[in-house]
Amino acid sequence: MLPIKRALRPLAALLLAAAVATVPAATATASDAPTSGWNDYSCRPSTAHPRPVVLVHGTLGNSVDNWLSLAPYLEHRGYCVFSLDYGQLQGVPLFHGLAPIDKSAAQLSDFVDKVLAATGAGKADLVGHSQGGMMPRYYLKFLGGAAKVNALVGLAPDNHGATLSGLTNLLPYFPGAEDLISAATPGLADQIPGSAFLTKLNDGGDTVPGVHYTVIATKYDEVATPWRSQYLSGSDVHNVLLQDLCPLDLSEHVAIALLDRIAFHEVANALDPAHATATTCASVFS
Known about the structure:
The protein is α/β, with parallel strands linked by helices. The chain contains eleven helices and six strands.
């Protein structure tokens, strides 16, 4: 990268962050979590938005912190929004998504059943970040989720593994390292490219019939790398690169889910494609 481009990246990021801060619905605090529509089991989906939205956090995330901006964004647009904690290891508070991913998918299955029973909806839509965009595919493929889910939207999902900018490629040079990761944090081991979990997940195709898939990626991702590995193949897949929508968008792996209203606008389009509008740099103000 040229020095001038490297120097301009922080400036552009600052400008985008400032724009986000000027929009009332852009940010929220933990006190906003129990508002109507976010984990409010009395919420009933509207005719305009007939399906509840279940937010699935990423590795080391949780049901609140991961969604302090996106949950209110969707709630403000009339959705019933729910989020869960999954994959917690014994003795590890706050940080989730570390348990075996097939077990986490079973927790998601139970949570979706709970949401559908409470709201009376026939199907839900899922929006997940990182592992939370990939893990639901196991639920859809192996746990009967396809009959209960209309759409899966992944924000920087590690659908074919996370190399951490190539760091996982060094594991073979450290004997025992992979075994240690598997024993201590199996959810991380499951995300290493070539793992038994990912091999099973992607065998026979990336998608299942009847579910609409959207992947929203950023070329500045430093975790789910290479970023093109996030993309899915299938007949009902929409793969999106944020920088094709707004070249000024410098969000990386974490920011895409925490504060990027350009990504949020594309999430809204995926949830309601019949009323989709063009996503551009100006979507930060939408």
